[in-house]
Amino acid sequence: MLNVLNREEAVSLIKEKTAFLIPAAEKADIREACGRVISENIVSPENVPSFDRTTVDGYAVIAADTFGAGDSIPAQLEITGEILMGKNACFTLKRGQCAKISTGGMLPHGADAAVMVEHTDSDGGLCLIYKSVAPGENITRAGDDIAVGETVLKKGTVISPEHTGVLAALGITEVNVYKKPVIAVISTGDEIVAGNPEPGQIRDVNTFLLSAASKALGCDVIEYGAVSDKKEEIENAVKDCVEKADAVIISGGSSAGARDMTVDIINTLGEAYFHGIAMKPGKPTIFGMVKGKPVFGLPGHPLAAYFVFRLIVAEFIKSILSIPPGKPAGSGILTENIPSNHGREEFLCIRLNDKNEIVPLHTKSGIISVLSSAQGFIRIPRNTEGLNKGTVMEIYGL
């Protein structure tokens, strides 16, 4: 008999049982850190920019010296020098003075604005200014981008190329990241083969699918491969993987039929906490612990296995890496009625038409091609008597 939980209960129970499995931290060069997860808040050690600088080509000025300037009565300021790019402006601007400067150049002491070169003329040692500027105009102050002491990246952030640029700007060349969790993937079934199938056999899809999904979340993977539906072989595979990995995924062998052995094996080696989630696809999902390692039993059908990974296993991985929960990618309007009365929370692949409306992709759990054509999925709440055309739905990324 299935011990069926709803999805929220299942995720909560898994997080409770695995809360102690926080990976250790290690240092990573920022050149190699993309896709890794930061293990502590990163606080800026300095201001960015580190000095006041201009955002235009023109002249550094004291703004008050330009007040009232116009086409008929320009302000006249003494040009005291030129600030070259990358050079220290090691002088102080006094009232009635200005300095020629290029975009990004360092403002001299005393300057509080810059005038665009288009609004000036130079005549010998004088600069004629035809437009007034306000204090702070056309300049960037030290720390305007990033201030010293500011938290620039939070614990649990997955490092992107954009984050790498921020780290480089701060002079940070190494970051503390979580060690990659190791996920072992086992496929079960007498019909599953690694090579070319004979009649009645099918290729092992789930090893590749679930391994790729795990790697996309920053994990290392042990691909155990396909094993037959023999209790001893599956049990030996689980024993082997538990010794080598931080978590184990078994696809297949989770149905309610007579050949189901996964729950028995988990209970023999450890403890199974549930066998069944009120979701479609993915009802016969299993979770247990063996020697302090989480073991997940996923349906054998690839689409169902993927959704269980996306909605259950991925939440476990994110929780131990402190990655914040995902949010809907957007919303759209349904283009058709959707019947639903399964007593289960349902997840349906969708695509968007040229009007950004939701087109459901109706398929079966054994079909894999829908994942490559889908642009996301929608969630139909449990015990919903279907959805009407025109209903606004949140869209989640695959």
Mean pLDDT over the full residue set: 92
CATH topology of the largest domain: Molybdenum Cofactor Biosythetic Enzyme, Chain A
Largest beta-sheet details: 6 strands, mixed
- Radius of gyration over all CA atoms, rounded: 31 Å
Uncertain residue segments: none
* Range of helix content: 10-25%
Relevant CATH superfamily of the largest domain: MoaB/Mog-like domain
Number of helices: 7
Domain count, please report it: 4
Write the layout of secondary structure elements.
Blueprint: H1 7-18, E1 25-29, E2 42-43, E3 53-54, E4 58-61, E5 75-83, E6 97-101, E7 113-116, E8 120-123, E9 126-129, E10 139-140, E11 151-153, H2 161-169, E12 174-178, E13 182-188, E14 192-193, E15 202-203, H3 206-216, E16 220-227, H4 231-244, E17 247-251, H5 262-269, E18 271-275, E19 279-280, E20 286-290, E21 293-298, H6 302-320, E22 330-333, E23 345-352, E24 358-360, H7 370-373, E25 376-380, E26 392-395
Parallel strand pairs: 5-6, 13-16, 13-17, 14-15, 17-21, 19-23
Antiparallel strand pairs: 1-12, 2-11, 3-10, 4-6, 4-7, 5-9, 8-9, 18-20, 20-21, 22-26, 23-24, 23-25
Helix pairs in contact: 1-6, 3-6, 4-5
